[in-house]
Design goal:
This protein is mainly β and about 210 residues long. It has one domain: outer membrane lipoprotein receptor (LolB), chain A, CATH 2.50.20.30. The chain is about 5% helix and about 45% strand. The chain has one helix and 16 strands. Strands 3-10-11-12-13-14-4-5-6-7-8-9-15-16 form a 14-stranded mixed beta sheet, with no helix packed on it. About 25% of the residues are buried.
């Protein structure tokens, strides 16, 4: 009997679940990018962004639509943290470290999800994943399309009943990135924003 129970437990990890007579896909961790790359993309609202990835870290250089100032974000994907540089006008010598949790509002999706089909973005085939988490603003579930090496090519959500694109890659190069691009620049003061407190809404602990 114990061998039967053990075999049943193992099988449950590999086979879909039957729910109300239908086969339901089992949630699993959404894979993170597996290669160095550099991409150009557009964000919701019309902002342009250059994205670089290496060793589990992202560097995002965001040009907000209609503004001259560039905002740089350095994201540690395993740690779920982002350092933002240039987010406060006139304070380029200061950076803010934010706990982003499973926030997908910058395009990268972290957490569990289910495979949901195939699509093509920027001339590349990609696999659709429906994430269990939401996008960090008042929205519905998030869908991301991942390349063969897990690069997020398009991230979407539903807002007020309408499908909206959070981020979509327009150009992609798989090329080695300089590790220095993902480090905090020298002479920058780091301010850690307490978990759950958005920038500019309260006190922060200075380092």
């Amino acid at each position: 009997m114990r061998y039967f129970l053990r075999a049943s437990a193992i099988a449950a990890c590999f086979y879909p679940v039957l729910v109300d007579g239908f086969i339901a896909a089992r949630a699993e961790p959404i894979p993170l990018p597996a290669v160095d790359y550099q991409a150009k993309a557009t964000m919701m609202g019309g902002s342009a962004v250059t994205i670089r990835h290496s060793g589990g870290k992202l560097r995002m250089e965001i040009q907000p639509h209609g503004l001259a100032q560039t905002i740089t974000g350095i994201v540690d994907l395993p740690a779920h943290k982002m350092i933002m540089i240039g987010a406060v006008p006139g304070m380029n010598s200061m950076a803010m470290e934010i706990d982003i949790g499973k926030d997908a509002s910058y395009g990268q999706v972290i957490g569990d999800g289910k495979r949901a089909g195939q699509d093509t973005v920027a001339g590349e085939s990609c696999e659709l994943w429906e994430a269990d988490s939401k996008a960090g603003f008042n929205s519905g579930p998030v869908t991301v399309c991942l390349s063969r090496d897990n690069i997020p090519l398009r991230t979407q959500t539903t807002i007020d009943g309408k499908q909206r694109v959070i981020m979509e890659v327009t150009e992609l190069q798989r090329t080695r990135q300089d590790p220095a691009m993902f480090a905090l620049p020298p002479n920058i003061q780091l301010v850690r924003v307490p978990k759950g407190l958005m920038p500019g809404t309260g006190a922060a602990d200075k380092q």
